[in-house]
Hints:
Layout (H helix, E strand, L loop, with lengths): L2 H17 L8 H7 L6 H11 L3 H4 L3 H31 L7 H5 L33 H9 L11 E4 L3 E4 L7 H4 L3 H9 L1 H5 L3 H16 L2
Antiparallel strand pairs: 1-2
Amino acid sequence: MAIKNLRTVTLTVRRLVRSSRTGGRHSKIPRKAVSRRFFPLTYVVRNLMVLKDEAWWERLSPRLKKARARKMILERSVFYLRVEQWREDRLACTPLVRSSVEYLQPADDGVSYCSHCGGCCEISSGLPEFPTDSDISDRWKSIFGLGLGRGHRFCPFLWEERCGGSLCSIHPWRSLACRIFEEDECDFFVNDPDFVRSLDLKRLMDTWRLFIDLVDGA
């Protein structure tokens, strides 16, 4: 896939959503979330693209598809903004941290093979076991274990940097399963046919148009 082209499309969509003066009652919170630096826009679009291939989704009427997709985008946006506020509160209490990106995912985490493709995080839920000193609430641990609800296809705490690059919004307090993720598991995800298919630029472009319609449409 042409990464440069994907980044160009992502930046263009962000600008369109930010600058558009149209939009109905569904768009206020998603538009606010999309304007944030780390909102996982590419992953939301890939989420929508995956849904289009699922049998239960295909059985829905066009009206229900649009309603469910908008609900999913709203749920993701609301949760993103909550985590962002929580993170900002934590950052304010941690003066030694030099930047928000460093606080999200330290460069010295010792995982040299990670390319931040996000493949390992494109699962809707995980085993909710965290270190005893993890500062994540029981409610959020439950959300990590159960996911954000039907239709969501990636980790609730996955954020995005550099148009498609993954960031963990709770990296210092992440689950035990995330901590023991090994290189062979990474290779499995990177080479999985479904993951490779999710990077197809033509399919992504078609789904970008759907996303814009869902956020800016009446």
